[in-house]
Design goal:
heterodimer, A: alpha+beta, Glutamine Phosphoribosylpyrophosphate, subunit 1, domain 1, 5-stranded antiparallel β-sheet, 12 strands, 35% helix, 26% strand, B: alpha+beta, globular, Ntn_hydrolases_N (chain A), Proteasome_bsu_CS (chain A), threonine protease (chain A), zymogen (chain A), hydrolase (chain A)
Chain lengths: 274, 267
């Protein structure tokens, strides 16, 4: 029986010169990137990143509870101080039963999640069964480890449901990979953790859990300038993921903290008296 | 020994602004034609729009035009390979993904190009894809990129505010504007951006994509900070010079020519 060693092929990135035109080959090996021929790679990357200002900044969270995994994220992308988009999809659908969240560099997350989706599909076709969440997160972590130190910015969570039940892993651009029940990633994560940790119970229903997730994202967008837009909430159950809600955080604010009508009436009276 | 800092940069910013708006059965892509470097104008008639010839997909890019040129060539060749392999032209969403991958393949030495891709999707509805420099992309109803984008986007948000595609229950992001209204909006937006952005001006090139074909319109934009002043000044100078000698007239004409070449002039 030939073992599937495609995961092991990612140990070393091939350096730019002499690379074959792998754009036509597909994604079975490490994509080889053009590297600038400079003596100071780090300094060059710092300058290049500052100049192109790739889109980043975010709040994402995920937690495991009795009914599965709840995943939520905001949708703002900022380029320096400019909000480049309020409608970025930060919850990436890797396949019908696995989700990945995006935090850090938008292009990095989009590209590597897509790459992971391809690898997961290849695994399914080669092994005639779905890849586990543990396996998928390991593939991603190994891939990112080989680009360690080159300035990628990826802070992602892989959430899914496999044969062992619900699974949640945090993977980052240093190649770190952590298994856990509760994670929040991004510039707004401290705020989200505050709300999430204080409201978390393992025995929650899907509605309670989704409300907790939504509130956590809302509070993070309230206090963090780099987070905002639409708070999306997804649930991953035994039959795959389902999007539960997508609410504009501005509207959520007035939903949670409605303006008391008494004050408005007072203002109207004062205005009429003048 | 102190670390020597590089005094040559492989990048330069040639300025310019690109805008695209998607409609129910059309897509409008527009860009100005000014190419600058620092405070100088290199060209007043440089097109930033590239027709990918991919079944109605048009790419407009601002930033460093050398990188843009290289990017256009790479896209063209990859599209050609696709055509040979699949015996058909790429659809606009496919071209969008291709552009994203092409940009990301230079993740460690990015193309300094800020792109907007516009076209019609398989159903004939307009679609606009907006990119950052390393390939993160998103399908939107409208977008502006380039030096004037921070001036234009808030105005487009105000006029075309389309509900976010992430909202549930889902709402359609396509703008309800008709095609002539969208073209008018684009002209207005560029006229305003030209007033406040030194890198935007000269001419506006608009491409309108519809199911039956592509139409191009060109509109003149402001060439200097105040053209009417320049005109007045040249008249005044000529009047003065009729009292003096011919060489004085020559000097005045030369002055107005020099003024012509500066994007930022004190007139």
């Amino acid at each position: 029986m030939k073992l599937d060693t495609s995961g092991f092929e990612t140990s070393m990135p091939t350096i730019g010169f002499g690379s074959s035109n792998d754009m036509l080959d597909g994604f079975s090996t490490v994509p080889s990137f053009d590297l600038p021929r400079t003596t100071d790679f780090d300094g060059f990357q710092k300058e290049a990143v500052q100049m192109v200002k790739p889109a980043r900044g975010t709040t994402t969270l995920a937690f495991i509870f009795k009914e599965g995994v709840m995943v939520a994220a905001d949708s703002r992308a900022s380029m320096g101080g400019y909000i480049s988009s309020q409608s970025v999809k930060k919850i990436i659908e890797i396949n019908p039963y696995m989700l990945g969240t995006m935090a850090g560099g938008a292009a990095d997350c989009q590209f590597w999640h897509r790459n992971l989706g391809i690898k997961c599909r290849l695994h399914e076709l080669a092994n005639k069964r779905r890849i586990s969440v543990s396996g998928a997160s390991k593939l991603l972590a190994n891939m990112l480890y080989s680009y360690r130190g080159m300035g990628l910015s990826v802070g992602t969570m892989i959430a899914g449901w496999d044969e062992t039940g619900p699974g949640l892993y945090y993977v980052d651009n240093e190649g770190g990979r952590l298994k856990g029940d509760r994670f929040s990633v991004g510039s707004g994560s401290p705020y989200a953790y505050g709300v999430l940790d204080s409201g978390y119970k393992f025995d929650m229903s899907v509605e309670e859990a989704s409300e907790l997730a939504r509130r956590s994202i809302y509070h993070a967008t309230f206090r963090d300038g780099a987070s905002g837009g639409v708070a999306s909430v997804y649930h991953v159950g035994p039959n795959g993921w389902k999007k539960l809600s997508g609410d504009d955080v501005g509207e959520l604010h007035y939903h949670y903290y409605p303006v008391p009508p008494a004050i408005a009436e007072q203002v109207m009276e004062e205005a009429a008296a003048e | 020994m102190t670390k020597q800092h590089a005094n040559w940069s492989p990048y330069d910013n040639n300025g310019g602004t690109c805008v695209a708006i998607a409609g129910s059965d059309y897509c409008v892509i527009a860009a100005d034609t000014r190419m600058s470097t620092g405070y100088s104008i290199l060209s007043r008639d440089y097109s930033k729009i590239h027709n990918c010839k991919a079944d109605k997909a048009v790419l407009s890019s601002s930033g460093f035009q050398a990188d843009v040129k290289a990017l256009q060539k790479v896209l063209k060749s990859r599209h050609l390979v696709y055509q040979h392999q699949h015996n058909k032209q790429m659809s606009c969403p496919a071209m969008a993904q291709l552009l994203s991958n092409t940009l990301y393949f230079k993740r460690f030495f990015p193309y300094y190009a800020f792109n907007v891709l516009g076209g019609l999707d398989e159903e004939g509805k307009g679609c606009v894809f907006t990119y950052d420099a390393v390939g993160s992309y998103e399908k939107v109803g409208y977008s502006a990129q380039g030096s004037g984008s921070t001036l234009i986007m808030p105005f487009l948000d105000n006029q075309l505010k389309s509900p976010s595609p992430l909202l549930l229950p889902a709402q359609d992001a396509i703008t309800p504007l008709s095609e002539p209204e969208a073209v008018d909006l684009v002209k207005t937006v560029f006229a305003s951006a030209t007033e406040r952005d030194i890198y935007t001006g000269d001419k506006l090139e608009i491409m309108i994509l519809k199911a039956d074909g592509i139409r191009t319109e060109v509109m003149e934009l402001r060439k200097t900070l105040s053209e009417c002043w320049q005109h007045t000044l040249s008249i005044v100078l000529i009047r003065i010079s009729t009292l003096g000698s011919l060489c004085y007239l020559e000097l005045c004409l030369k002055f107005s020519c020099v003024v012509n070449r500066f994007s930022f002039s004190y007139l």
